[in-house]
Amino acid sequence: MFGKFRKIFSGSIGIDLGTASTLVYTKGSGIVINEPSVVAVNQKTGQVVAIGNEAKKMLGRTPSHITAVRPLVEGVISDFEAAQEMLAYFIKRTLKGKGGFFRPTMVIGVPSGITNVEVRAVRDAAKNSGAGDVHIVEEPLAAAIGVRMPIHEPIGNMIVDIGGGVTDIAVISMGGIVTARNIRIAGGKLNQDIIQYAREEFKLLLGEKTAEEVKIAIGSVAKETEGLEAVIRGRDMVTGLPREVAVTDSDIREAIHKSIKTLINATRETIEVTPPELVADIMHRGIVMTGGGAMLNGLAALFESELKIPVYIAEDPLTAVVRGAGIILEDLENMGEVLLQNDEDLPPR
User: Fold this and answer.
1) 52 contacts 17 by C-beta, under 8 angstroms
2) Angle between helices 80-95 and 116-128 (to 10 degrees)
3) What is the pTM of this model?
4) Which of 19, 37, 40, 202 is most exposed by smallest CB count within 10 Å?
5) Mean pLDDT for the chain overall
């Protein structure tokens, strides 16, 4: 009785705590926040200047005493205090005007390959930010639940979740992960590939924001019938002055080729260590792609061509993890098996 009373008055929040973006789900309202995981801090005073959208606008554009940082690197907390401030800010915004006698119950997604210490850091940051009960779920499981895959059945379900900092590749059956790979190649790495390519080919220094914009605008792993083109602006490495260069989809494809090949090889290796019965299911049912990286033009078709297995992009791939967290929140009693309730529950790595 007390547990039900607590749930009614405390609120329940699902969070996809991502390297690039943080998404927040609340019971009854759905996804209420989708903002960049960026915190701007005044180094002189130690005070937080901005969080989320406002902080992202400051990346690469601040005076020396204001630093815009990403509290998460490659899916895990790298700046505990900034992560805590960011979580507290989003929780406060989410519960604004709702009151509450108790701290909110939370379900938070984390990458599949992180350590006990890293999981504890997420739990501690959430607790210090105002959370009550904190439940941790591995992101490929949350994403699979979010796209309504039948993960509780004795069927092989394969998901490739390409986020901002990490890509989670997992085969799921009977409510658990059978085989998985977690690699540090995702949206952020593709941005860095483009920055490196511009440096080497055009002797042009680009910012991360510019690299991301051109990736979204003309990024493709498939040869276009009509070439796409965009203008990038940066600093000339020779003269030190501003310069703009026209780049094509072919340039971007060449820049990210090596990283995309690594993603395909990691998926192939995951399939190679999957039990044969589950592989048969995957060949029949296909692979589902989620995360922002899944929207890269031609990626699903390239995976399908290389792996000889059908590949599908989930509907609204960006929100799959937080939608899964929301579904778990709605039925915590029956979803216990997918959660990492305690640090000891983590599978050995």
Assistant:
1) no
2) 50
3) 0.88
4) 202
5) 87
